[in-house]
């Protein structure tokens, strides 16, 4: 057994074997995989093996697409049949709203080149007469996916890995991880059989590995404990049952008819596929419990839980209604096993927080579907520095240290039961809320705030009359909240609005080395003292890693503001970079001060008038003037009794200020501003209106237009890139070139809907790009969007089409910042 390797993969399920295979295929010739039991002995062995394309995430769709295509090649390479039955996937809809969901998904799938067709109930009945269709509105059909044998595909990947030089060692358990400064020293213990249990022996070995990948499945909590990190990967019970033979199905196949597709009855929370003349029925029901919150018992191996038939009785009966010929089929077998989940249902893939060369691949609820693509894209990250797609939405650091076991377990249960609940783009799930609240939360709730959930924080999405039901207002079109957001957007364009932006991520960076470090770390020139700049930290490949507003407080002291959803993600990258460069640049301190500062953003033509009512200054009439407080500057001011770090900038593109204040004084400041705003008609405004307004100004958003799959130059932001200096990622950015370009579009869409930022774009009959943001423009009275297109298409006046609800709608590329392109309103004096 080797004791020194380039990469050690811990976990021998489908995900782990895929990662080992793809690392070897990417050129690493010294890879080892460890499995504490036998390959596939975790969740892999009892997985149903379905390969659904369906996912609302751009990155995850790419991952699933790669897997499905990759699995079809394994037999030719390895000689092992992976058991892939390409029967297709039929996703049925009983309601118009479900069809709306499928049409939004289909446009997203189209951006990735995933094939699909829509079918009517009559077409379904004609093709598969055993399926009852009289209550259906239609279906989405993926003809290229189906199901696979999980054990077979894992063994095929394992054989392919061995053929490429990977060492696979079974019955070895990782028991300790130690970073020696240059590599990981992993203590592993030989596991032996004893009384039917798998127990550690006295034989131990220390393996030195430059890189470690954990793909420990249900054992993720044990892994997290050994690494000293938090990881919200906790299993939830998932049940599928095997039914006795269906005589009509047997006859159907005997007559020479093809196998049925995987049949997904989303409105009945179930899926079904053929199995030896009968049916497998899988359910995503309410009430399935999380298991192994604190680790898997030593006695639990390739085991299952007792079947809770009462919990799935409704879905069982619904299957008999959907396929009436199976009504008399008995229950042949059942599988109720642990499947790992995360709070948002997406896996944790990428660098571990706070650790070097430690990579996580955990929390896979659809592990068979995702295994192939995860191995491919994670290998790219490890070998090349970044993947070709933006993997941020799967990054483990999207959850911070505020996350607890209780939070993860309850949210994972919620994610499980939401698999087949309508995935509205404006959905806000209720479990474990409210948790992180700013002091003004109760005041805003009392004024009708309808909150969203961002990195654990409660943040107003919009304000409505008391008693308004946000859940019932959700839609794939313009929901019941839409008019409230319109009114809020108009208030900022025409009067004044107040936005709670407390969730912003905030870091303080200071010390003798701070200036030299930030000059290297970001691509724009640094501001002078008292001024601010918008800038970007790049990846090693020259793409956008983080967007910062940098406020220079003193010669060597900086206040960095970034997106609220990415606090741990930004903090980890920043701290690791500081640790790397401090020996070169000098002593640097970095403090996460997110929870120390509250933020209100006040914006609109009357915002200066409101602030004048409460500002304390020797000359309150001039303190907010362009002369004393120019655009893109910071001033320490006093509003009533509150010391405020005021920044003259507004994400809405209007005259405005961000008011950063000691968080313990927030309620006093809120009351002060609310009272002062009364006579000026000030309106409380939520994130949805703000999102629409920033698109009118073509302000890019991190996670939408900005990410690790595009450079700042592709985002069309050359004014924020100082090519006269050296900075991290500069050479790679320039070598990358312009593969696509960010544009703003005005869209003549449906009368009752706006784009969500997931839709495909066409130029004539050619697919040329995709939207990354979408919404409604109050300034232009029509839909608006931002997105990426081929560079030759990114020309003002180009006519495009955007696909919404399975139709193509007219769109036009417009100049950047179509609202107030000269920034006259932002700079207005007073």
UniProtKB/TrEMBL annotation:
Alphabetically ordered keywords of this record: Oxidoreductase
GO molecular function, one term: 4-methylaminobutyrate oxidase (demethylating) activity
FAD dependent oxidoreductase domain ranges (all copies): 7-381
Pfam families found in the cross-reference section: DAO, FAO_M, GCV_T, GCV_T_C
This protein's record includes keyword Secreted: no
InterPro entries per record: FAD-dep_OxRdtase, FAD/NAD-bd_sf, FAO_M, GcvT/YgfZ/DmdA, GcvT/YgfZ_C, GcvT_C, GCVT_N, TrmE/GcvT-like
Source taxon at top rank: Bacteria
Start and end residues of each FAD dependent oxidoreductase central domain: 384-438
Domain Aminomethyltransferase C-terminal: 741-820
Its EC number(s): 1.5.3.19
Signal peptide range: none
Residue ranges of every copy of the GCVT N-terminal domain listed in the record: 441-725
UniProt similarity note: Belongs to the GcvT family.
Identification of the protein by name: 4-methylaminobutanoate oxidase (Formaldehyde-forming)
Organism: Sulfitobacter pontiacus
């Amino acid at each position: 057994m080797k004791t020194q390797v380039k990469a050690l993969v811990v976990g021998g399920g489908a995900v782990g074997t895929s990662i080992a295979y793809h690392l070897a295929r990417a050129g690493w010739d010294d890879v080892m995989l460890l499995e504490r039991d036998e390959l596939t002995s975790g969740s892999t062995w009892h997985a149903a093996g379905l390969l659904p394309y369906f996912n609302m995430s751009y990155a995850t769709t790419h991952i699933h697409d790669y897997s499905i295509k990759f699995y079809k090649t394994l037999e030719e390479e390895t000689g092992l049949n992976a058991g892939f039955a390409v029967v297709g996937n039929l996703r049925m809809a009983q309601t118009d709203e479900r069809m709306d969901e499928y049409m939004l998904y289909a446009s997203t799938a189209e951006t990735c080149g995933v094939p699909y067709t829509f079918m009517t109930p009559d077409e379904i009945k004609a093709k598969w007469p055993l399926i009852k269709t009289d209550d259906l509105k239609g279906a989405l059909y993926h003809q290229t996916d189906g199901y696979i044998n999980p054990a077979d595909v894992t063994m095929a990947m394992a054989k392919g890995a061995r053929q490429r030089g990977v060492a696979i060692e079974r019955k070895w358990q990782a028991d300790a991880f130690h970073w020696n400064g240059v590599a990981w020293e992993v203590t592993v213990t030989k596991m032996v059989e004893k009384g039917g249990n798998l127990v550690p022996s006295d034989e131990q070995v220390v393996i030195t590995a430059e890189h470690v990948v954990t793909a420990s499945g249900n054992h993720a909590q044990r892994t997290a404990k050994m690494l000293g990190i938090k990881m919200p990967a906790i299993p939830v019970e998932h049940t599928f049952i095997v039914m006795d033979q269906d005589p009509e199905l047997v006859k159907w196949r005997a007559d020479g008819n093809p196998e049925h597709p995987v049949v997904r009855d989303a409105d009945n929370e179930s899926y079904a596929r053929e199995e030896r003349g009968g049916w497998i029925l899988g359910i995503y029901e309410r009430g399935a419990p999380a298991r192994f919150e604190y680790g898997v018992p030593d006695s639990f191996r390739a085991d299952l839980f007792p079947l809770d038939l009462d919990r799935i009785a409704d879905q069982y009966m619904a299957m008999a209604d959907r396929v009436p010929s199976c009504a008399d089929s008995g229950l042949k077998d059942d599988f109720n096993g642990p499947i790992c989940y995360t709070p948002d249902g997406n896996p944790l893939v990428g660098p571990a927080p706070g650790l070097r060369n430690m990579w996580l691949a955990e929390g896979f609820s659809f592990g068979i579907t995702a295994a192939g693509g995860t191995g491919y894209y994670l290998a790219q990250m490890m070998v090349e520095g970044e993947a070709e797609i933006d993997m941020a939405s799967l990054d483990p650091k999207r959850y911070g240290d505020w996350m607890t076991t209780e939070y993860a377990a309850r949210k994972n249960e919620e994610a499980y039961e939401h698999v087949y609940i309508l995935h509205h783009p404006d959905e806000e799930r209720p479990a474990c809320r409210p948790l992180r609240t700013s002091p003004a939360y109760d005041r805003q709730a009392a004024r009708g705030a309808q909150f969203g959930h961002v990195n654990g924080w409660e943040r107003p999405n919009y304000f409505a009359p008391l008693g308004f039901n946000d859940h019932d207002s959700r839609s794939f079109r313009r929901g019941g909240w839409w008019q409230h957001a319109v009114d809020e957007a108009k208030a900022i364009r025409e009067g004044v609005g107040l936005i709670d932006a407390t969730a912003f991520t905030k870091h303080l960076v200071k010390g003798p080395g701070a200036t030299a470090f930030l000059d290297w770390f970001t691509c724009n020139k640094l501001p002078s003292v008292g001024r601010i700049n918008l800038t970007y930290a790049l990846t090693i490949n020259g793409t956008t890693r983080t967007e910062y507003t940098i406020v220079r407080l003193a010669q060597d002291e900086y206040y960095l503001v970034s997106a609220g959803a990415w606090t741990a993600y930004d903090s980890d990258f920043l701290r690791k970079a500081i640790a790397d460069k401090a020996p070169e640049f000098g002593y640097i301190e970095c403090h996460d001060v997110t929870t120390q500062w509250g933020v209100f953003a006040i914006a609109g033509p009357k915002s200066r008038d409101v602030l004048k009512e409460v500002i304390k200054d020797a000359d309150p009439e001039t303190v907010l003037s362009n002369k004393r407080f120019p655009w893109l500057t910071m001033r320490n001011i006093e509003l009533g009794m509150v010391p405020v770090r005021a920044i003259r900038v507004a994400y809405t593109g209007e005259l405005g200020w961000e008011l950063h204040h000691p968080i313990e004084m927030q309620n006093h400041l809120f009351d002060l501003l609310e009272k002062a705003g009364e006579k000026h008609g000030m309106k409380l405004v939520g994130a949805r209106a703000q999102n629409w307004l920033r698109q009118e100004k073509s302000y890019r958003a991190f996670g939408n237009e900005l990410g690790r799959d595009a450079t700042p130059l592709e985002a069309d932001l050359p004014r924020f890139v100082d090519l006269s200096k050296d900075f991290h990622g500069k050479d790679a950015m320039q070598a990358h070139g312009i593969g696509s370009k960010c544009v703003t579009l005005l869209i003549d869409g449906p009368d009752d809907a706006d784009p969500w930022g997931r839709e495909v774009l066409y130029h004539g009959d050619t697919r040329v790009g995709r939207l990354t943001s979408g919404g409604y423009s109050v300034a232009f009275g029509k839909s608006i969007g931002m997105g990426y297109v081929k560079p030759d298409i990114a020309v003002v006046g180009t006519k495009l089409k955007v696909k919404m609800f399975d139709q193509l709608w007219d769109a036009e590329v417009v100049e950047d910042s179509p609202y107030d392109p000269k920034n006259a309103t932002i700079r207005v004096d007073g």
